[in-house]
Amino acid sequence: MSTFAINQVSSKESRDFDRQAWASGYCNVQKELNKVPLHSIKGKIPKDLCGFFYRNGPGRLERNGQRVHHPFDGDGMIASIHFQKGEANLSNRFIRTKEWQEEEEAGKFLYRGVFGTQRPGGPIANAFDIRFKNIANTNVVKLGGQLLALWEAASPYALDPITLETYGVSSLNGALQPKEPFSAHPRFDPGHHSSRRMVTFGVKTGPKSRVRLMEFSSEEGNAGELISSREDIFDGFCFLHDFAITPNWAIFLQNAISFNPLPFVLGQKGAAQCLSSKQGAKGKFWLIPRDCGSYAGQSPQIFDAPDGFVFHHVNAYEQENKLIIDSIHYPDFPEVGPKEDFLKMNFDLIPAGILSRCEINLLNKQVSKTKFSKQCCEFAMVNPLKQGVQAQFSWMAIAGKEEGYAPLQGIKKINLLTLEECIWSAGPLGFVSEPLMVPRPNSQVEDDGWILVLVWNGERCGTDLVILKANNLDEESIVPLPISIPHGLHGSWVSEL
Ligand code: CO
Q1: In this structure, what CATH number is given to the domain that contains residue 363?
Q2: What is the pLDDT of residue 3?
Q3: C-alpha to C-alpha distances, 5 to 29, 382, 441, 461, nearest whole angstrom
Q4: Domain that holds residue 476
Q5: What's the confidence (pLDDT) of residue 344?
Q6: What is the side-by-side strand order in the sheet with 249-254?
Q7: How many angstroms separate the CA atoms of 313 and 310, rounded?
Q8: Is residue 1 in a domain?
Q9: Alpha carbons 234 and 246: distance in angstroms, whole number
Q10: Count of alpha carbons within 13 Å of 73, Cβ hemisphere only?
Q11: How many angstroms is it from 363 CA to the middle of ligand 1?
């Protein structure tokens, strides 16, 4: 396995984590496996945990001695762990995107990455090449008979849910135009309108932003069918990575961000590196009525948002004349794709993500914000059955220290009513990815189930699957994987097919 040596950090920082162990988690995935049995080295794999745990993330971070400028530019690789009656097996495959296949053939990078990876040859070789490489690396969800590997600036890639074979770019049965952007953050409505749905969006932005809101059936029988679609146009540029839903609303936060494309066009920077905070500007909440809700067909409502920046929302719900939305707020826009080597970033200079709640009063238009905790966190979720309604608990990945930005080294459960917390730590040499809460089948108790998380084990430079009890974060099982999976992005759970 190739790892990258870290000799020095670009500037002085108060380090309280093992940088070499963290950095060792950025390696190429070396092999593709098919249904390799897994064995627990601690505890047992729960017998009533039956289904597929899918995870997407960058799996190819270096070619021909050239490293990606930022891990978000790495080609998508899907890991699938199938659980059945206390047994588990692992399969993994790169998504055969057109660009991945061409670069495999050439043995070098042929495309620029959005986060600053350049083709060899400097700015001259990159200028005026404004193609986006669809790396399909951000999320993976199942819709109908297909897995969808998602990357927000392009259409999804469809895969076989069992073999992970790539079928190709999908138009979702004609719902999408060629190359139409499709968010990597769909939300699954558990049935607020009598049937389960996948709600998602696509955005085209510029001086004005066009948001397409789409709802697909996720019921057996007609799963994947487009039920509704609407388009709205808003003033200004937007960077929308995620959104939230309630039974009546789709909620977006337009961060106060500006985009200067010139360095991108001139071949000096990746497109995402051309984003910056828009000084003095206010972010906005955009509330778009869902077609199945009480305000169907009405115009969107717009509210001022608090200062700061949001990538990810946790959940939202309606309470009388209020909309409540929990999100991870950064005090400022975190640089995406820094100028320097990402492995040498000074983490003290990166703003910390803080779990916070915004209450939007729909009558008097007031918006208030409160924090749940001071600890830096990311990748938070609620029990999926609580999507869009009030949840009592949330689970998330947290930094290994109480305040300030640092790599994610623990899992926290927080009671959103009492603020009571419990924590599981992977430290000092373990680094966590997004935790996934899987409810126990047929349980009515909100925190009854499991937390599934892939942990980079910096001691052996490999990946462990860790299964925690959702209610108290006790370890249920630790399962070393036979491949090393770099620090990843998002994933999903699919109950037994
Ligand atoms: Co995301």
Answers
A1: 2.130.10.10
A2: 36
A3: 17, 37, 45, 13
A4: 7-495
A5: 85
A6: 244-245, 249-254, 284-289, 301-304
A7: 7
A8: no
A9: 21
A10: 30
A11: 31
Is 90 among the domain residues?
Answer: yes
Consecutive 10-residue runs of the chain (497 residues): their mean pLDDT? 40 71 94 98 97 97 91 95 98 97 95 80 71 89 96 95 97 94 97 95 92 96 95 93 98 88 74 78 94 97 94 97 97 75 85 97 96 96 98 97 93 97 96 98 96 97 98 98 96 88
Q: What is the 165 CA–ligand 1 centroid distance (Å)?
A: 24
CA–centroid distance, 463 to ligand 1, in Å, is 21
Contact call for residues 244 and 190 (beta carbons, < 8 A): no
Domain count, the chain: 1
Q: Is residue 2 part of a domain?
A: no
Q: What CA–CA distance (Å, rounded) separates 209 from 204?
A: 6
* 326 alpha carbon – ligand 1 mean position (Å): 15
Q: How many CA atoms within 13 Å lie on the side-chain side of 103?
A: 26
- Give me the torsion for CA of 465, 470, 474, 480, rounded to 10°: -10
Q: Provide the 10 A C-beta neighbour count for residue 377.
A: 24
Lookup result for tokens 């001022």: 304
Q: Quote the ligand 1 centre to 10 CA distance (angstroms).
A: 27
